[in-house]
Amino acid sequence: MFRVAKGLNHKLFNSHRPLTLSLLLMANARVSAFSAGSPTTAPRKLVGTHNGSFHCDEALGCFMIRLTKNFAAAEIVRTRDPQVLETLDAVLDVGGVYDPSRERYDHHQKGFEEVFGHGFTTKLSSAGLIYKHYGKEIIARELQLDEGHPDVHRLFLAIYKSFMEGIDAIDNGINQYDTDQPPRYLNNTHLSTRVGRLNLDWIDPDQSSEKENEAFQRAMALTGSEFLDSVRFHANSWLPARSIVMECLAARREIDPSGEIMVLNRFCPWKLHLFELEEEMKIDPPIKYVLYQDDRGKQWRVQAVAISPDKFESRKPLPSQWRGLRDEQLSNESGIPGCVFVHMSGFIGGNQSYEGAMAMARAALKL
Length: 367
Ligand SMILES: *[C@@H]1O[C@H](CO)[C@@H](O)[C@H](O)[C@H]1NC(C)=O
Ligand SMILES: *[C@@H]1O[C@H](CO)[C@@H](O)[C@H](O)[C@H]1NC(C)=O
Ligand SMILES: *[C@@H]1O[C@H](CO)[C@@H](O)[C@H](O)[C@H]1NC(C)=O
Ligand SMILES: CC(=O)N[C@H]1CO[C@H](CO)[C@@H](O)[C@@H]1O
Fold this sequence. Notes:
Keywords: Signal. The chain is 44% helix and 13% strand. With 367 residues, it is an alpha/beta fold. It has a 6-stranded mixed sheet with strand order 1-3-2-4-6-5, sandwiched between helices. Strands 9-10-11-13-12 form a 5-stranded mixed sheet. The protein has a two-stranded antiparallel sheet with strand order 7-8. The structure holds 2-acetamido-2-deoxy-beta-D-glucopyranose (4 copies). One 2-acetamido-2-deoxy-beta-D-glucopyranose binds next to loops.
């Protein structure tokens, strides 16, 4: 899928644009596994990015743009030659221009301050730019949904938050924490460092463009597979869990008039959704206890909600007089039959039945 700009005569590029194009198309015809077939097929689009050492952002940007209708199976041309870049259908991470109307997506130029929006303020990389302009289309195509479907919008935001923003931030050298402290340990396993290691090693005797383009292709495959994993995870697991939590939150007052107890009628990862949805649905007072069946479906759990997603401390821990007790002793203390346990920290407890767990939550609210 790569055409090596280096291998062609530069004079041709500089002075004969039509010839350049026809050469490019000839090159395409040679390497194309996709456009062989009907001679009426439109020529493959050409997407440019810089040559030399590569990063996560343009590898992912090149992968993603090829998932769009317009650039499906486009050929990637790696060069810094402005005369060549000018002839291409889209250009990422090089060229000094951000102009989506001309499919120009560089982020290195002075004055570039583009962010994703929707409350996100991290400066974009070339991957973030492609995602901002094509993310919805890509997600909709992956899921075979209409681009205007509300799930597509939700996934678009969630995938930015959990996957893309970190790539934008690392590329732009933005620290994860507001501190001057040196990090306590190295984190060399994140996607950006793994892509970095795919670059040709200095000691490798073959530093040719061909070798470099092969390495870039591996970087595209790596970043692309992780991006698609994120899309699939969010579509197949995250979104259904979110819908369950949303329904259970909406039903909370039917469960208990306090509105502070939520029953999860089907087990799913609920914590992150709860915090996000409470804000979105303006849930007030906030949920104090969540009831759900344990993994074997035998007992019911009553879990105190933490003050925030990354804190262990509960908004309203189960009563101190119940903590660390089990079975009969706990039932005696609480006056609720069938109690199984309450954790020492008061963040979780169990009863053998739904009614028991509900009685524990209701009693705890009043204590
Ligand atoms: C990029 O490609 C050009 C030829 O198009 C070559 O002269 C240059 O050395 C390459 N740059 C790097 C950093 O490999
Ligand atoms: C629970 O209370 C009953 C009745 O008062 C008593 O007989 C029993 O020993 C108590 N059990 C525990 C474990 O405290
Ligand atoms: C707790 O679970 C046990 C066993 O199912 C049940 O007998 C008991 O009634 C439950 N507690 C309440 C208050 O329902
Ligand atoms: C050593 C190392 O790779 N540190 C990086 C850890 O991750 C943050 C962002 O996630 C980077 O800013 C650090 O450079």
